[in-house]
Amino acid sequence: MMKASQYEAIESSKLSPPRSNRGLSILDLIFRVIALGATLGSSVAMATSEQQLPFFTRFLKFDAQYDDFPTFAFFVLVNALACGYFAFSIPLSILNIARKGAERSRTILIVLDSIMLGLLTAAASATASILYLAHSGNGSANWLAVCQQFNDFCHQASGSLIGSFGAVVILMLLIIIQGTALARRH
Amino acid sequence: MMKASQYEAIESSKLSPPRSNRGLSILDLIFRVIALGATLGSSVAMATSEQQLPFFTRFLKFDAQYDDFPTFAFFVLVNALACGYFAFSIPLSILNIARKGAERSRTILIVLDSIMLGLLTAAASATASILYLAHSGNGSANWLAVCQQFNDFCHQASGSLIGSFGAVVILMLLIIIQGTALARRH
């Protein structure tokens, strides 16, 4: 009697459709495509930022470009890396839409996403802190606000942060999406 | 006949013990305790770093402390926040050892862990980039290497980065652990 009712319960649970992760998987794909564009834009915007001042002496040329600052070079590198990673993860994400469970590939994506989250956050915030210094200087360290001279350079470099921080937010959402999909699976 | 064999398969899968997440949960707890100590140490080390130079004029006092740099103040704040978060998540982690499934609390931990990962990475890497500037200066922006004067200050501030980056690595491992535990559950 006991066994029969258990059996019935199992049967009915098999008949009721399992909660699908299809919506989450599609959201995942859309986010990855957006993040691909955002990091590509950031990388290009920072790499092309350059400014020459209209005056120069015989010995000195006043120009600024991204590779004067190691942090900015790191920023370009990490954004290019993130862009490549998103391009690589989009096929995985498309496969996840088709498959039901996909625990393994979701776990791999959580791992890779969190590594990229770490790298991208590091690059974006280090760049932001240097740009903050460049904009406002620091009195106690006697560092001047160089953005007063290199205005265009600073503007373009600051703009490139937008895409990068956008990608950071998207990566956090992606980790949450994968975690939810894994928890939902039955 | 078909039904009976299905029934048998279900029965046998119920008899075989499910793979346990107990080891992962204990690892999770240990990592959280270590990270609690690391972020507490970082926060205190940075907040107490201060140096006065042994010479001064009537109008100027030469001293450096963490709140001269907004980035360092942010670093102290975020590390204190992370420390509080770990203290709050340890009870949750202990509960996860006792319980079998714990999908919901694991998903919540993934979400909170990835938020803290973002914050802590941002703070640590922004601080690292400022400290790099302080150590080596920047020729094209004409920023001097102030660590030549404020040697002790820079040393203590750099030391406080260790705990913070340690906590970042631990947070990544924690996200991976939770993801694995969720994927394994049956």
Task: Produce the secondary structure layout.
The structure is a homodimer of 186-residue chains.
Chain A: H1 2-15, H2 22-47, E1 50-56, E2 61-65, H3 70-98, H4 103-136, H5 151-184
Antiparallel strand pairs in A: 1-2
Helix pairs in contact in A: 2-3, 2-5, 3-4, 4-5
Subunit structure (chains A, B): Homodimer and heterodimers.
Domain Casparian strip membrane protein (chains A, B): 22-169
Protein name (chains A, B): CASP-like protein
Summarize the structure in short.
The structure is a homodimer of 186-residue chains. The first copy, chain A, is mainly alpha-helical and 186 residues long.
Provide structural commentary.
The structure is a homodimer. Chain A has five helices and two strands. In chain A, strands 1-2 form a two-stranded antiparallel sheet. The longest helix of chain A is centred in the middle third of the chain and has 34 residues, at about 105-135. The two termini of chain A are about 25 Å apart. Chain A has about 190 residues and is mainly α. In chain A, about 75% of the residues lie in helices and about 5% in strands. Chain A is elongated. In chain A, helix 2 packs antiparallel against helix 3 (about 70-100) and helix 4 runs antiparallel to helix 5 (about 150-185). In chain A, strand 1 (about 50-55) and strand 2 (about 60-65) form a beta hairpin. Chains A and B meet through helix 4 and helix 5 of A and helix 4 and helix 5 of B. Chains A, B: It is a multi-pass membrane protein. Chains A, B: This is CASP-like protein. Chains A, B: InterPro entries: CASP/CASPL, CASP_dom, CASPL.
